[in-house]
Amino acid sequence: MSGETNTAKLIKGLNPLLNEGKYIFSTLKDFSKIDRKHTLFEFKEKEGTTVVLEQHKADELNLDYEYVAAWITLTIHSSLSAVGLTAIFSTELAKNDISCNVVSGFYHDHIFVNINDATKAIRVLTLLSESYQ
Q1: Mean pLDDT (whole number) for 31-39
Q2: Count of domains in the chain?
Q3: Does some domain include residue 41?
Q4: Which of 8, 56, 100, 111 could bond 72 through an S-S bridge, CB–CB 3.0 to 4.6 Å?
Q5: 2 falls within a domain
Q6: What's the mean per-residue pLDDT of the chain?
């Protein structure tokens, strides 16, 4: 399945799910002290590799981080070629003073928001989905 591309269907079907846990972003140049089975995702940049993992695991590994996030999954299967989805939900979050970091997987979009904004972000996304024309 290639996923949904219709923007209206995507927004109406967001069905945001707040995943359990607290997540952090850290950067590594040396992976010798981390088992990749603990990383949620990795992204290689020229300065180092960004890793996202649960806060408790980062604390066990003594990793540096500044930002503690909640992880929200938009459960609709969105196409990687869909246009407008990220712009619409990120604008709505911004209107409510919620910063978001977005990662797209093959099946779903994932949003990381400050842990203190998790409940508010779910409410904003749900309202957006329910009221979208």
Answers
A1: 84
A2: 1
A3: yes
A4: 111
A5: no
A6: 94
Q: Is the backbone of residue 104 left (phi > 0), alpha (psi -120 to 50) or beta?
A: beta
Is residue 31 within 8 Å of residue 91, measured between CB atoms?
no
**125: confidence class by pLDDT, cuts 50, 70, 90:** very high
Q: List, for residues 45-100, the tens digit of each pLDDT value.
A: 999 999 999 999 999 999 999 999 999 999 999 999 999 999 999 999 999 999 99
Instruction: Tell me phi and psi for residue 100, to 5 degrees.
Output: -140, 145
**Does residue 1 form part of some domain?**
no
Q: Rounded to the nearest 10 degrees, what angle do helices 118-131 and 85-95 cross at? A: 120
The CATH number that applies at residue 13 is 3.30.2130.10
Q: Does 59 reside within a domain?
A: yes
Predicted TM-score of the model (pTM): 0.94
Q: Among candidates 70, 61, 67, which has minimal Cα distance to 113?
A: 70
